[in-house]
Design brief:
Elements: H1 7-15, H2 32-41, H3 45-54, H4 65-82, H5 88-104, H6 108-125, H7 129-140, H8 149-160, H9 165-177, E1 183-186, E2 191-194, H10 195-203, H11 208-219, H12 226-232, H13 237-252, H14 256-269, H15 273-286, H16 289-302, H17 307-319, H18 324-337, H19 342-354, H20 358-371, H21 376-389, H22 393-406, H23 413-422, H24 424-428
Antiparallel strand pairs: 1-2
Amino acid sequence: MVLKISKKFFFWLFIAFQFLFMFSPAQQTSDFSQQVRNLLITRAGRTVLAFFEKNPYNSSLDITKEEYHYLLGLANLVTYRQTDRSDTQFINNAEQALLIAKDIQNDPNLQVRIYMYLSAIYLLEKNNQSEAEKYLTSSEKLISPDEPIFVTFCFWKLYMGNIPPEEENYYRNVISKFPPDSQVLDYRTTQFVNAETIFREIKKRESVAEIHALYLPNIQNETFTLRTMKRDIEKNMDQVIRNLDLAVVAIAQERYESAHTLAIKAQYVQETHVGHHLLGRCFAYYGDYKKAEQHYEKSQKISEDYAQNWYWMGKLNLEVLSNFSRAEKYLKTAVSLEPGKGAFRQLYGRALLANGKYAEASAEFKKAVEYMPDNAEAVRDLAWFTDVYETNYSEARALYKKYISLAPDSIDAQFVRNRFNAIKHTASGGGK
C-alpha cells in the first residue's frame, strides 16, 4: 500500500521544503494550538480559517481563549495579505479577534505579541499612526532588553520612525548586539528573518545619508558631498556598464553591499532598468520587500523585455509575499521572453501549481528538467509532482533515484530515499 499524503501538503514542499518535517507523523500533535501554528507557518490562511470554523472555541480545546483569538487574528491577517488585500473583511476580522484577545490579559508574553500585531495592523493596513504607536508602547512595558523578542520590538520601533535620534541610536545598537541568527518577526510579511538581515535593512536607506555611508570608507577624511561623488564617477555609459557588470558579479557572489554600492554609482550617472533590478535584488536580500518591489517595478517600466526582472518579481510574490496570481503573471512573462530558461520554467510550474493549474504545471516541470537535466531541484520538483499529483509511481521512482544520484548529501535526500522506498513495491509491481 502506498502512503497517501495530501496534495496541499506537497505543494508547500515545493515552496519551502524544510517545513516538511513539521508535518511528518512522528512530529504531529493533537494539540489544537500546534496544529494551527503549523498551518500558519505554511501560509495556509484559508485552511486555518476553515479549521477554526470547524472548531469554535470551547473549554474542551487544549488552548486558552486568549490564545485562540490571537491565532484566529493571525489567520485572518495572513489570509488578507494572501488575497492581495482585496477583501477588507479579513483585516477587520483580524483586528476584532486580536482586540478580544487583548482584553483577556492572562498571559503577559502573549500580550506582547498581540500588541505588536495590533500595532502592525494599524500602521500598515489602517494607516492609523497614533493607534500603532499606542500599542507598540504598551508592548514595551511588558518586555525587558534581555528577552529575545526585544530585537523584534527594536526593529518595529525603528521602522515606525518618529523617534528622537538618541533613541534611534539605542535601538540600532541593541539590534547590532544580538546574534546574527536571532529571529526577528517582520510584521510586513508575518515571517521570521534573521537579525542580521534586519540590521542590513536598517543601514540601507535610500537617502543622502545612506550614500554618505556607502562612500565614506573610500574618501577617508575628505568632506563628502554629492558633488564630490559626481566628480569621482566618469560620466559616460562605459563606466555605467562597467559598474553594472561588477554589481551582477557581486550579487552572484552574494556580496550584496558591494552590489548595492556599484548599482547606486551607476544609477547616479544613468538610470537604467538593470540598475533598478539590481537594487531590487539587494533590498529583497535585506528583507525590505516593499523597496524591492518598487525597484523591480521601476525596472519594468523602463524595459518590459527584461526577463530576469519578471522572474525575480515572480519569485518574490510566490515565495515571500504569497501573491500567487501575480507570481503566475510575472513568471509567464519571463518564460515568454526566454522560453529556453529552465529555472524560469521550474518556478513558473510552482506558481501554476499554487493556483491549481495541474496540467500546465506538469508541462512546465517537465520542460525544466528537459532544459536542466542535471539540476537536482528541478528533478525533485518533477518527482514530487509525478508521485503526488499524477500518481505515476514508476516514473516518480526513476526520478527520485536520479535526484539521489545528483544530490546524495542534500538536506532532502533522506526523505526522498524514504519516499523512494515507500513506493518501491507499487512501482516494481507495474503500478501506474
